[in-house]
Structures are given as structure tokens and as C-alpha cells.
């Protein structure tokens, strides 16, 4: 039996280890079994779409933790280029990659609108009137039928040029690409605020989308993120959702 090798990466939800020539993603929390099968199911759908995502090989329990065995991503992370390179080039490269995801039909993936609605309904710190307003706002936004990554940011992109691989597809869904871009905006707004709007503009330029149509998703995307256990972002998310000054 192959032994679990060195740690390749670590995040809030999981750790990724060498496992022979493959990568083993082990989830941390009690819901790790469900998360493992969910990500494996998503990856199996993406495989037939020929997207630059890891191929899933197995789901199982490894040393008492549930995880997914998958192709190993290139060691280089796009975030290094994104952080160190000034100008629009890395924004445009990332936007084109995001666009390539959104060109694919999302049949078989969970509904993004249903996920956002469920998260807004259970988000803590919202009074009844704010929750109702956000749900009505969500209902007014256009649904879609494209693949949405759900957590698209530079640290989930590995490799370069034609060798890109996008990882962390646990929250992949079927929905409106502009909502997926807005999710990236919200993530960058916290991690690299000077790049957040530039990314929205780069995606809009690459696709002919309206910047205002992307930003229209901010309140609902921010409110939904309140359920993700990122306490250091909560004050900022409440502001983005229009719930605090």
C-alpha cells in the first residue's frame, strides 16, 4: 500500500499530500466523508468536459481521515506570478482561464442559486428583514447554466501557459458566470484589495460583460460567505452585503 507522503498544500477545509505519483486531499472536519464524495462527483463531471482539473482516482479513508485521490497539480502556483507581476497581464491571463470554465455547460452540478439561497437563510448575524431583502435580491438576479468554480482565485491555479491546472472544486456548481466572477471579487477584495476591481474589469473586457452586472451580485455573494467560518472577514462581508456602515 502506498504511504502518505509530504504535505503539498494546506487550506481551511483540507490538506493535500503526495501519494505516489498522485495527490491525496484529506479533509479536516467531521463532514469530510460527504465533502470527499462531493468533490469526487464534481471532478468526474468536469473530466468529461475536458476542463483543466485533476482526474479523480479514488475516494476513501486514509489514516482515519476521508479524502480524494487525484492527479497531482504542477508545483508552481499562479499566485506567485499574480502577486509579483504588476500591470494587467496576470489579471487578463486569469480572466481568460475563468472564461474557459464558464464556456462549459454545468449539467449535473449543484445549483449555484440554491446554494446561495440556503447559505443566506442560515447565515448568522442577519435580522429577518435583512435576510428577506437579500433573498429577494437574489431572486431578482439572472440564473445561468454554466460551470462555476465556486472558489476561483490565484492560489487555486497551478502551472503556467497551456499547463494550467485548477484545483479545489468542492463548491463547483451550475449557474451564472457573473456570480462566480463576483465571488472572486469578494475573495480578492479581502486578500488583495488593489487587484479586485482590476480583475472584474479584465473579465468584463474578455467576455463583453458589464462590470455593473458582475458587481450586482456583491450583497448576496458576501452574505452567503458569512456561513464559511471566516470570522476575520465578517465585518467586511457585512459591509459588502449592505448590512453595516
TrEMBL record:
Gene3D superfamilies the UniProt entry points to: 3.90.1200.10
SUPFAM superfamilies: Protein kinase-like (PK-like) (SSF56112)
Positions of the Aminoglycoside phosphotransferase domain: 16-208
Protein's name in the database: Aminoglycoside phosphotransferase family protein
Amino acid at each position: 500500500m502506498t504511504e502518505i507522503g509530504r504535505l503539498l498544500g494546506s487550506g481551511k477545509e483540507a490538506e493535500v499530500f503526495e501519494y505516489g505519483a498522485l495527490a491525496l486531499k484529506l479533509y479536516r472536519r467531521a463532514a469530510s466523508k460527504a465533502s470527499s464524495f462531493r468533490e469526487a462527483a464534481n471532478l468526474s463531471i468536469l473530466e468529461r468536459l475536458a476542463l483543466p482539473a485533476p482526474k479523480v482516482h479514488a475516494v476513501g479513508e486514509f489514516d482515519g481521515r476521508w479524502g480524494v485521490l487525484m492527479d497531482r497539480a504542477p508545483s508552481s502556483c499562479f499566485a506567485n506570478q499574480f502577486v509579483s507581476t504588476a500591470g494587467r497581464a496576470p489579471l487578463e491571463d486569469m480572466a481568460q482561464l475563468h472564461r474557459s470554465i464558464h464556456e462549459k455547460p454545468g449539467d449535473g452540478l449543484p445549483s449555484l442559486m440554491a446554494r446561495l439561497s440556503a447559505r443566506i437563510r442560515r447565515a448568522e448575524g442577519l435580522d429577518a428583514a435583512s435576510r428577506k431583502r437579500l433573498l429577494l435580491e437574489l431572486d431578482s438576479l439572472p440564473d445561468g447554466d454554466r460551470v462555476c468554480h465556486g472558489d476561483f482565485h490565484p492560489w487555486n491555479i497551478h502551472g503556467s501557459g497551456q499547463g494550467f491546472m485548477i484545483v479545489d472544486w468542492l463548491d463547483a456548481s451550475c449557474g451564472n458566470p457573473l456570480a462566480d466572477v463576483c465571488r472572486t471579487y469578494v475573495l480578492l477584495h479581502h486578500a488583495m484589495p488593489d487587484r479586485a476591481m482590476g480583475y472584474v474589469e479584465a473579465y468584463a473586457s474578455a467576455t463583453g460583460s458589464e462590470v455593473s452586472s458582475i458587481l450586482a451580485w456583491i450583497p448576496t455573494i458576501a452574505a452567503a460567505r458569512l456561513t464559511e467560518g471566516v470570522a476575520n472577514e465578517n465585518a467586511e462581508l457585512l459591509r459588502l452585503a449592505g448590512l453595516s456602515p
